[in-house]
């Protein structure tokens, strides 16, 4: 478990660092810039979940073939999902470009925030074309048990992202590069993603990894596409449903009034304050996703390969081990959020009103980081077995029966602002962690055919 998890954890840490850096950069500009960058981050998250049509299926199918001792079939699937990833990226960009203004207006953005958000979304969408293909390649490599190559390529991509974003935001006079302000953040991101995708293709073509790029096999065939869609469509639909709920949750937060405390603080950024505070809090909460995604990816790989080798008992055991190890890390993160909220928030944003709003919100998030780890690990392990329908049902129930109603009650009806709205987040993750854990124990997912 640890051997497979630590490279993914390293990759996640670097990705988190870039997202944190982008939010910090926007925090040095204005609450409006933070709000715009925050919306773009949520839309990029939607892209990743939609690309799960390809990546979730890739991991499960490649892992089954690899565990069954069929590396040639695993390699053929990996090549074909690269082609499917490219198609998914193009379709996403074609849909995002006209929808960008609607998404910004849906969160009540106007003026500076609206202009930055629309431009950011459209430019970032172009970079997602390459990202879709890269995610498919990384997922295939993980299915074959290669966690190190995605780590190394992801590290280079993320470090380049941070450096390029800084350069585009502030400019490099000796090189004649002008300062682009908030727009520079996304310019750096697209440059890094494009070069990272090219690096992935070059690495696969070199033959230095367990899987190898074969040009003649990049064109998807009907059989592989059907297998990938059988697993990936429910996962992508799960992601789209979850994101729709998150967008409704964001819209609710964007319309929450600032608290009396933060409204009285000098330097208030007006209507963007509450939303910017939420972005700061959840960007810090992304720390919890680092071990959760890493241990979940390791569990998915071991589950898939164990089922391919017909070692069902091992497949059952690994999910509980991963969830238990992650819960310990979740407890430590919870303590940090509760005890160190003021300095963490102060580092992330200059505006005192945003700080006053974000501190109690971050402390509230600290109360449910342990179940958050369980909800991620168990669901990812189930997907490693090709079980994607049950996670979809849990998402529908948790998001629409718990998160949104409880968020309205706490944030609007009771008037508790962000901490009140976060009651919905807590109810959602507690439910999904418990239900996914029970299903992993008794659900019969080990009989799933992929």
Describe the structure.
The protein has 16 helices and no strands. The chain is mostly helical and 450 residues long.
Which term fits the overall shape?
globular
Measured distance between first and last alpha carbons: 23 Å
Strand content: under 5%
Overall number of domains: 1
Mean pLDDT: 87
- Given helix and strand content, the structural type is mainly alpha
Radius of gyration: 21 Å
Order of helices and strands: HHHHHHHHHHHHHHHH
How many individual helices? 16
Largest sheet: none
Number of strands: 0
Q: Detail the poorly predicted runs.
A: 266-270
**Residue share in helices?**
over 70%
Transmembrane segments: 39-61, 81-100, 120-139, 151-172, 184-205, 318-341, 361-381, 393-416, 422-442
Pfam families: MatE
Keywords: Antiport, Cell membrane, Ion transport, Membrane, Transmembrane, Transmembrane helix, Transport
Subcellular location: Cell membrane
């Amino acid at each position: 478990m640890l051997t497979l998890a630590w490279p993914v954890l390293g990759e996640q840490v670097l990705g988190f660092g870039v997202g944190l850096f982008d939010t910090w950069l926007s925090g040095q500009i204005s609450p409006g810039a933070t709000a715009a960058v925050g919306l773009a981050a949520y839309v990029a998250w939607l892209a990743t979940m939609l690309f799960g049509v390809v990546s979730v299926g890739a991991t499960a199918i490649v892992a089954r073939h690899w565990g069954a001792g069929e590396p040639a079939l695993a390699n053929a699937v990996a090549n074909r999902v690269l082609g499917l990833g490219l198609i998914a990226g193009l379709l996403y960009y074609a849909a995002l470009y006209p929808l960008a203004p609607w998404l910004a207006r849906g969160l009540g953005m106007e003026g500076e925030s609206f202009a930055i958000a629309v431009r950011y979304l459209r430019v970032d969408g172009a970079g997602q074309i390459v990202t879709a293909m890269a995610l498919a390649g990384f997922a295939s490599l993980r299915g074959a048990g290669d966690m190190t190559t995605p780590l190394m390529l992801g590290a280079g991509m993320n470090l380049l992202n941070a450096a390029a974003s800084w350069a585009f935001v502030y400019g490099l006079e000796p090189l004649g590069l002008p300062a682009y302000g908030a727009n520079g953040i996304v310019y750096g991101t697209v440059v890094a993603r494009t070069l990272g995708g090219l690096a992935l293709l070059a690495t696969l073509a070199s033959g230095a990894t367990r899987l190898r790029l074969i040009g003649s096999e990049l064109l998807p065939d009907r059989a592989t596409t059907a297998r990938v869609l059988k697993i990936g469509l429910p996962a992508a639909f799960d992601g789209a449903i979850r994101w729709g709920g998150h967008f409704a949750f964001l819209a609710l937060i964007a319309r929450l009034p600032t608290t009396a405390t933060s409204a009285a603080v000098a330097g208030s950024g007006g209507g963007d304050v509450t939303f910017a505070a939420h972005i700061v809090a959840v960007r810090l909460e992304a720390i919890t996703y680092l071990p959760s995604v890493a241990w979940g990816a390791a569990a998915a790989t071991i589950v898939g390969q164990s089922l391919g080798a017909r070692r069902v008992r091992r497949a059952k055991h690994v999910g509980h081990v991963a969830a238990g190890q992650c819960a310990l890390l979740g407890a430590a993160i919870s303590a940090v959020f509760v005890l160190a909220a003021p300095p963490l928030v102060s580092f992330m944003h200059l505006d005192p009103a945003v700080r006053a709003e974000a501190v109690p919100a971050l402390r509230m998030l600290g109360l449910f980081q342990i179940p958050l780890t369980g909800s991620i690990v168990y669901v990812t392990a189930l997907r490693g077995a090709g079980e994607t329908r049950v996670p979809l049902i849990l998402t529908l129930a948790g998001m629409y029966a718990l998160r949104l109603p409880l968020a309205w009650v706490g944030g609007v009806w009771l008037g508790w602002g962000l901490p009140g709205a976060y009651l919905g987040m807590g109810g959602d993750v507690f439910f999904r962690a418990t239900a996914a854990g029970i299903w992993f124990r008794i659900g019969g997912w080990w009989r799933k055919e992929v």
